[in-house]
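Justification of resources, computational component.

The compute hours requested in this renewal are based largely on the per-chain cost of generating structure records like the one below. Each record pairs the submitted sequence with a full structure-token output. That output is archived, and it is also reused by downstream analysis tasks.
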Amino acid sequence: MKLLFFVPDSAEIGLLRSRLQDAGIECEMRNEHVSPAMPGAPFYPEIWVLNDEQFDEARELLAVWRQPASSSDGDQQ
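The structure output for this chain reads:
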């Protein structure tokens, strides 16, 4: 099991989890109910890849997902 990504916005973690699951990558959310507004909360919502063999594929999916959309790219993936 490996940590893939963390961010203060649990909605973003949820969207990423959906994309990973759609790609057949087993993953788990952690700390999704921790609010960054809570005093002393040192944790951000995280997404973990459960199967180490799927980690590289998950990292590639994350990189593509995090790239800004460009209208000149057309239908390229």
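The first helix runs from residue 10 to 22. Strands lie at 2-6, 27-30, 46-49.
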